[in-house]
Design a protein that fits this description.
Blueprint (H helix, E strand, L loop, with lengths): L1 H69 L1
Length: 71
């Protein structure tokens, strides 16, 4: 009976250790995915700002060309 109990306690400890390692692995994956998403979000925001600036420049050029053509 004592041997069975000791084996069960040892097995539970091994399972707890495996669970801890798995949880740490999942946490690392979540951190990595979060970091990647934040980088993508920053890139998207920068690209949106560049697109807005590009539209403003295109508008100014178009207005200038119209003014030049009508002069």
């Amino acid at each position: 009976v004592f041997n069975s109990y000791n084996e069960m306690v040892k097995h539970l400890a091994e399972l707890e250790e495996a669970k801890r390692h798995y949880a740490e692995s999942l946490e690392a994956e979540v951190r990595s995915a979060t970091r990647a998403l934040l980088e993508q979000q920053a890139d998207l925001a920068r690209n949106e700002r560049l697109a807005a600036v590009g539209m403003e420049v295109a508008t100014v050029i178009a207005i200038g060309l119209e003014a030049y053509a009508s002069a």
